[in-house]
Amino acid sequence: MSAAYRPSTGYRTATTIAAWVLGILWLSPLLYAIWTAFHPAAYSTRFVLGAPLTLENFVRAWHAAPFSRYFFNTTIIVIMIVGAQCVLCTLAAFAFARSKFRGRDILFSLVLLQLMISPDILAVVNYRTIRALGAVDTLFGVALPYLTSAFGIFLLRQTFMTVPRDLEDAARIEGCGTLGVLWRVYVPLARPVYLAYGLVQVSFHWNNFLWPLIITNSVETRPLTVGLSVFSSVDQGIDWSVITAATLMTSGPLLVGFLVFQRQFVQSFMRAGIR
Amino acid sequence: MTNITRRTAMGAAAGLALAAGLTASTAVSAQQAMELRFYYPIAVSGPITKIIDGYAADFEKLNPGVKIKPIYAGDYVQTIGKALTAMKGGDTPEMAILLAADIITLTDENAVVAIDDLIKSDADKAWLGGFYPGFMENAKLGGKTYAIPFQRSTPVLYWNKDMFKEAGLDPEKGPANWQEMMDFAKKLTKKDASGNVTQWGVQVPTDGNTSWLFTGLTTANGVRLVDPEGKKTNFADPKVVESLQYLIDLSKAGVQPPGLTSWGTTPKDFLEKKLAMMWTTTGNLTNIKGNATFPFGVAMLPAKANFGAPTGGGNFYIFKNIPAEKQKMALEFVKFMTTPERAAEWSIATGYVATSQAAYDTKVMKDYIASFPQAAVARDQLKYAVSEITVHEGQRVMKVFNDSLQAAITGSKPAKTAMEDAQRDAERILKDYR
Amino acid sequence: MTHQPAADSTAFAASAAGPARQSPWQRWSGSVEAWLLLLPSVVLLATFTHIPIVATLIDSFYSTPRPNRPSRFVGLRNYEDMVADPLFWKVMWNNAVYAVGTIPLSIALALAMALFVNDRIPGRGFLRMAYFTPTVLPMIAVANIWLFFYTPDYGLLDQVLRLFGVGATNWLGMQETALGAIITVAVWKEAGFFMIFYLAALQQIPPDLREAAAIEGASRWTFFRRVTWPLLAPVTLFVLVNAIINAFRTVDHILVMTHGGPDNATNVLLLMIYETGFKFWDQGAATALTIVLLAVLSGLALFQFVVASRRVHYQ
C-alpha cells in the first residue's frame, strides 16, 4: 500500500551515487594515508597498481620518535580527564537536577558559560595558574583544566531530570543515602549518556593539541598530537611516507575502536537523546 | 580519583626534591651529581636526539659526577619560550641551543652570560677565536660574545644535472648570477601541449619565514636589512625593493610557480623532478643525497653586486643566575661539543655547516668532501654570508616583514608599497628601543 | 527528601514552584549536601574559567611586563592599539568568513549524510564509517595529508583536476584560495562528527509518521520540510552551538598548513592570540584580544539562550 511512497529508481540511484561520492571524498585522506604508509617513499605521490608493499615506513616512524611513551601519555591524560569528568559532572548534575538551594539558578547559568568558553581560549592566564601550582610539564597539568565540564553537567542534568521521582523514593525507603540513590538509580538509567558523552570526550582529548602544546616541554609528558607535530615539522622537507605511517599508528586505536563499537555508539547516541 | 591524588603527591615530591637540589647546588660536592639542563630545539626528526644523547653520555663518562639532561622542547620558537618561562619561574636551565638571531631577545631578557667573562686561559681564547667569523657575527653584541656557534646552516642552490643536460646547459655549472639564473630558468621551464607547466625552472620557497632566503637576495644586492645593534631596519631601501621585484619577476616570467611556495614541499618537488633548481638550506643535503634518483649539483646562491647569503640555525647559550661552577661546567660541555672532530661528525650526520676551519681540516671531513664535493659549497659561501635578521622584538619585526613580503609575492601590494609598509610597522615596534 | 510534583521543568524558573514542605533543618542540610556535591566542579570551573576571565580582563588594562619596565596600568591603551592595528580587523574579517564558510556547509552536509545512511542504501555500514573517519583522525596529522592534497601539480587535487584539463593551482600559496582551502578541511572535519547527532535523532522518528504521510500523498520534500526538519530542530541547535564554538577554536590545521599566511590571509583570532601571547610574549595585547574573543562567544551564547528558551524545550 505504501507503493506510492516507494522511492523511484531514479531517486534511489541519485542518492546512492551522491552518498558514495561523499563517502569516497570523506575517506580519501585515510585512503591516501594507507596507500602511502604501506609503499616506499618513491610512490608517496604516485598511484601505480602493483607498487611494492613495505612496512619500513612504520619501522622508521616508530624509531623516529618515542611513540610508545606518547601513547602512554595520551592514554593517561584521557583516562584522567574522562574518569574525573564522569564522577564530578555526575555529582554536580545531580545537585542541579534534584536539590534546591539558594543561588542554584545563578550558579547553573555561570556553569553554562563554560559551554562556550573552553580553557584553551584562556591559555595565557591558565598557563600562569598551572605554573603557580607547579604543574607545568606534568600529565596532571595537561588534564587539570578539563577535569570537569559544563557540557557534561548540562547533559547529565537533562537526563537526571527525566528520572521518575518514585524510583528515587523507593530506593530511599530501602535505606539508600544520596550517593547510593545516585549510584543505584540515576547512573544506571543514564548509561547511554555516559557512553555517548564519554566517546565524544575521548575523541576530543585524544586529538587535543593547542593546550598540551603550550603546557608540555618534554617527551615524558607530551601527548601523541604534540609528539606528531614536533615530529612532522617541515624544516627538513616533508616526508609523507613517515607522517602517514605515524598517523595510522597514532589514530589506529580510535579507528579500530570505532569500527568495533560503531553500532553501540550510534545507538547510545540515539538513546542518550543528545540535543 | 586515587590516580590524581597520587600524581599530585608525586608532583609535590618532585617539586620538593627540585627545591632541595637548587639550594644544595651552591655547594656541589664531588659525590653529588651536578645536573646540567640543556634545552635543545628538535625541529629536525628523530635520529638527531640519539646523537645528542650519545654526546651527553660521552661527556658524563669523561666528567664523573656530572649529569647532562637534554630537554627536547619543540621548534626554535617553542624552545626559547619554554627556556625563558622556566627562567622566570625560578627554574633557570644551565644552557640551551637557541636561534642565533635570538641573541638580542636573550640579552634584553638579561638571560644569558657573556662567554668572555667565563674564559680565562689562552687556550680558551684560541678556541673562541677558531670559529668562522660569518657565524660569530650574530654571536656578538656590543663587543661581547654571548653565544657559541653549533648547528649553523646557510641556503644554497641545488640543481638537477639531467635537466641541465636536456636543456643544453653545462650540467656541471650552476647559475653564477641573477641574470644567469633567470636565463637558465627560462630554458629549463617546460610546458605540455595545453600550456600547463610540467617542469619549473626555479623555486625559492616563500611561505613561513620568507625573510631568510630573501636575505640571500638582498645581501647579493649589496644591502643590509638591519643595523648591527638591531635597532633600525632598512626595509624600504630601493635595493631591497629591487631584490623583491626580482623574486616576483621570476614568477611573472613564468619560470617559478606563482604565489607562495612551500618550504616543506620544495625538496619533494625537486626529488619529484618538478623543479630544475631550488633554493633551500644545506640542512637538506643529507636528505637530497639519500633520495635523489638523478645526479645533482650544489652551488652558492647567485650573485648580483657580489655573492651573498644569510646564516641561520642555532648557537649555544649559557644562562645567567646559576652557580659559577655550573657555568664553568656548561662551558666545558660547550667546548666538548664543538671540538673539530665532533663538529665534523655532526656536520656529516646532519648536513649543518661545520663551525670552524679546524673541523674542515680533520681527516674524516676531508675524506667526506673528496667523496661528496657538494658538501664544501656552504663552507665556501660563508665568507659572503651575513647574519639573518637580528633585531629587538625579533619575532614581531620578522612577522611584519614576512607579511609584507608575502603580500607583494601574492600580488596584493606592489613591492615598493609593501616594503614601505613593513618599514613603517617595524619603526613603530622598535621606537621604544632608541 | 519530600514528595514533590515534577514541577521543575524549566532551567531557570524552578525555585518559584511548589510550596515549601521541608523543615528549615532539612532545607539547610539539603543545601549543604548540594554544595558538597557541587564543590569540586565549581572550584575547577572557577579556577580555569571564571577567575581567568576576570584576570584576563584586569590584565588587559596593564602593559606587558618587560625586564626593565614592570607592568603598569595603561587604561584602554591595549584596546586602542588593537583597534588601530589593521591586522586585527583583517583577522576578525577572516574569522567571520571562516565561520560563515564552515558552519552552514558542514551542517547541511552532516544532515545530508545522516539522511543517506538512515535509508537502506548499498554499503550503509561502510559509508557510516567513511563519514565518521575525520572525527577519529587527529587534525594535526590530517593537516599534513591535506597539505599533500593541495600541493601544486602533483598533489592529489591537481592530479584529479588534470584529468579535466585544469592546470596546476597553488591552493595554499595564493591569497584568493588559501582561506577556502582551510575552510574545506574544517568542513570535512566537522560534517562527519555532526552526522552522528543527526543520525541518532533521525532513528528516533517513528516510521508510522512516514507511512501516514505517504498515504496522504505528501511528497518526499514536503515530508522533510514539515515533519523531519522541525523534529530535528533541537539537534540542529546543538550542532549549531558546537559549530560556532569550533569556528573560533580550531587552529590546529592552520598552524600546520599555512601559519596564517600568505600575508595573514588565513590568520584567525585564536591564532593571533596564540602568537601574541606565546611567540611575542606580549601579555597586554594578548589579553585584550582574548577579551574580544570572549565577548564574541558570550554574545553568541546569549543569542543561543534566547533562541533556545523560545524555540526548543529543554527539560
Structure description:
The complex is a heterotrimer of chains A (275), B (434) and C (315). Chain A has 275 residues and is mostly helical. Chain A has helices at 9-37, 56-64, 67-98, 104-116, 123-132, 139-143, 150-160, 165-173, 178-189, 191-206, 210-215, 224-231, 240-272. The model of chain A has no long low-confidence stretch (mean pLDDT 83). With 434 residues, chain B is an alpha/beta fold. Helices cover 47% and strands 16% of the residues of chain B. Chain B is built from 20 helices and 13 strands. Chain B has helices spanning 2-24, 47-62, 76-88, 103-108, 115-118, 122-129, 133-136, 161-166, 178-188, 210-220, 238-252, 266-271, 285-291, 324-337, 340-350, 357-360, 363-371, 377-381, 394-409, 415-430; strands at 34-40, 66-72, 95-99, 140-141, 144-145, 148-153, 155-160, 190-191, 197-203, 275-281, 296-299, 309-318, 385-387. In chain B, the strands form three sheets. In chain B, strands 1, 2, 3, 6, 12 and 13 form a six-stranded mixed β-sheet that branches. A five-stranded mixed β-sheet of chain B has the order 8-9-10-7-11. Chain B has a two-stranded antiparallel sheet with strand order 4-5. The longest helix of chain B is centred in the first third of the chain and has 23 residues, at 2-24. Chain B is globular and about 75 Å long. Chain B starts with a helix and ends with a helix. Mean pLDDT of chain B is 86; it is low at 1-31. Chain C is mainly alpha-helical and 315 residues long. Chain C has 13 helices and no strands. In chain C, helix 2 (77-84) packs across helix 13 (283-311). Chains in contact: A-B, A-C, B-C.
Note poorly predicted spans of chain B: 1-31
CATH class of chain C: Mainly Alpha
Helix content of chain B: 40-55%
Number of strands of chain B: 13
Q: Supply the number of helical segments of chain B.
A: 20
Helix and strand pattern of chain C: HHHHHHHHHHHHH
Record field, number of beta strands of chain C: 0
Q: What would you call the shape of chain B?
A: globular
CATH uppermost class of the largest domain in chain B = Alpha Beta
State the domain count of chain B. 2
Q: Tally the structural domains of chain C.
A: 1
The pLDDT mean of chain C sits at 83
Q: In angstroms, what separates the terminal alpha carbons of chain C?
A: 21 Å
> At CATH's second level, what is the architecture of the largest domain in chain B?
3-Layer(aba) Sandwich
Mean pLDDT of chain B: 86
The gyration radius over C-alpha positions of chain B equals 23 Å
How many alpha or pi helices of chain C?
13
Cα-to-Cα separation, first versus last residue of chain B:
56 Å
